[in-house]
Amino acid sequence: MQFIAQPLPARKRVALVAHDNRKQALIDWCLQHRALLEQHELLATGTTGARIEAATDLAVERLFSGPLGGDQQLGAKICQGEIDLLVFFWDPFEPMPHDPDVKALLRIAAVWNIPVACNSSSADMMVQSALMDRSFEREVPDYQSYLAAR
Fold first, then answer.
1. Catalytic residue among 20, 71, 101, 124
2. Are strands 85-89 and 116-117 parallel, antiparallel or unpaired?
3. Domain-by-domain residue ranges, the chain?
4. What does the mean pLDDT of the chain come to?
5. pTM, entire model
6. Alpha-carbon span 124 to 2, nearest angstrom
7. How far, in Å, are 63, 75, 146 from residue 99 at the CA level?
8. Quick one: which of 104, 112, 100, 116 has its CA closest to 140?
9. Is 107 exposed, middle or buried (0-12, 13-18, 19+ CB in 10 A)?
């Protein structure tokens, strides 16, 4: 696979996801970083998005609930270049019936080289980075070259 440079914009499209036992932690994190988050575009899986909107008054584009396909919708948006970073507060202590979807989402985030935070510490470091509010280039698969070689 060949790779090309692709910019992440200064105004980021941030995907927010949390398992049931971690939703309140993500809401608390969003409240803590509300001023920063309102400068960016937010997307979330269904229930998580509804709860974040209600608690923070932030505008959130809501997709389906994770078990109903929301994780896969986020994965598709990552592939299409419509998500710039992923904040996913997952619960390592609870088995998830849609675990294959979660693993697929994390795999796609790695393939398309977007920043991923899985807990409040990594999310804090990510949003407090000097790169959060400016454009920067990342390396992504060169899909056009891949197609041309087939």
1. 71
2. parallel
3. 3-148
4. 94
5. 0.93
6. 32
7. 18, 14, 29
8. 112
9. exposed
